[in-house]
């Protein structure tokens, strides 16, 4: 029976397409290299940025680290505000909290940005922890999940009652690495067709209402 729900941020609780895409374009224009096509630009939503710059722009690890820094030159003052909450997301969190679920954020986005975005969209009052990557790091999903569990005081014995919710295979695989289930969401369609199911998602849902129904019945 689910008692704790960990939520991803980009592509799950928020539609961060515009801010992330614009900041990636800013980075490539400044550092050079091939500009990803529109579909590839969407693949930057969710995974750690450093890995995405290496995979989709052909950057070396050293240049990808620089790319993350340049990305944040644009994203922190501008891009984080080019963002919108999923319709009904705040209300969903409020209802789940009222029913006794423990809710937390687990995003590989820098934690200071997670804190700012969650506060702006009214998510914070429903969240027992807002967990993101430490300053200067790009944690993978498993790292963030482990830290969120630590903050919530959860142990291996609690894993069967924890659910991860995310929109990309990285959420599903990171959850599996930590020994917990993950429900995939297709609120904004950033995952490739079949990506979430193939990664091993316990279920794939299309709307916040479907997600709520899954949580309440498992």
Detailed description of the structure:
By secondary structure, the chain is of the alpha/beta class. 45% of the residues lie in helices and 16% in strands. The chain has ten helices and eight strands. The strands form two sheets. A six-stranded parallel beta sheet has the order 5-4-1-6-7-8, with helices on both faces. It has a two-stranded antiparallel ribbon with strand order 2-3. Helix 9 links the parallel strand 7 (181-185) and strand 8. Helix 1 (17-31) packs across helix 4 and helix 3 (49-57) crosses helix 4.
Strand content bin: 15-25%
Calculate the terminal CA-CA distance, rounded to whole Å.
Answer: 5 Å
Query: What is the 3D form?
Result: globular
Provide the low-confidence segments as ranges: none
Class per helix and strand makeup? alpha/beta
Alpha-carbon Rg, integer: 16 Å
Order of strands side by side in the largest beta sheet?
5-4-1-6-7-8
Largest sheet descriptor: 6 strands, parallel
Topology:
Layout (H helix, E strand, L loop, with lengths): L3 E4 L6 E2 L1 H15 L6 H5 L6 H9 L3 H15 L8 E2 L3 H10 L3 E9 H10 L8 E5 L7 H12 L9 E5 L2 H9 L3 E5 L9 H5 L3 E3 L2 H9 L2
Parallel strand pairs: 1-4, 1-6, 4-5, 6-7, 7-8
Antiparallel strand pairs: 2-3
Features:
218 residues, 6-stranded parallel sheet, two-stranded antiparallel ribbon, 10 helices, 45% helix, 16% strand, globular
């Amino acid at each position: 029976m689910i008692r704790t729900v960990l939520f991803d941020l980009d592509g799950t609780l928020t539609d961060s397409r515009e801010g992330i895409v614009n900041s990636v374009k800013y980075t490539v224009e400044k550092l050079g290299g091939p500009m990803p096509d529109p579909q590839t630009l969407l693949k930057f939503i969710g995974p750690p940025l450093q890995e995405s710059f290496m995979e989709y722009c052909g950057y070396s690890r050293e240049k990808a680290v620089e790319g993350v820094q340049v990305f944040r030159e644009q994203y922190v003052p501008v891009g984080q505000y080019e963002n919108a909450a999923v319709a009904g997301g705040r209300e969903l969190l409020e209802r789940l909290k009222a029913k006794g679920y423990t809710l937390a954020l687990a995003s590989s986005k820098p934690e200071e940005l997670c804190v700012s975005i969650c506060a702006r969209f009214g998510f914070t009052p429903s969240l027992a922890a807002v967990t993101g990557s430490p300053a200067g790091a790009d944690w993978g999903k498993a790292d963030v999940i482990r830290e969120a569990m630590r903050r919530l005081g959860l142990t291996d014995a609690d894993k069967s009652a924890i659910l991860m919710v995310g929109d990309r295979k990285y959420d599903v695989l990171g959850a599996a690495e930590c020994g917990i289930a993950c429900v995939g969401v297709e609120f904004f369609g950033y995952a490739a067709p079949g990506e979430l199911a193939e990664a091993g998602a316990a279920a794939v849902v299309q709307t916040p209402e479907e997600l709520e129904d899954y949580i309440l019945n498992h």
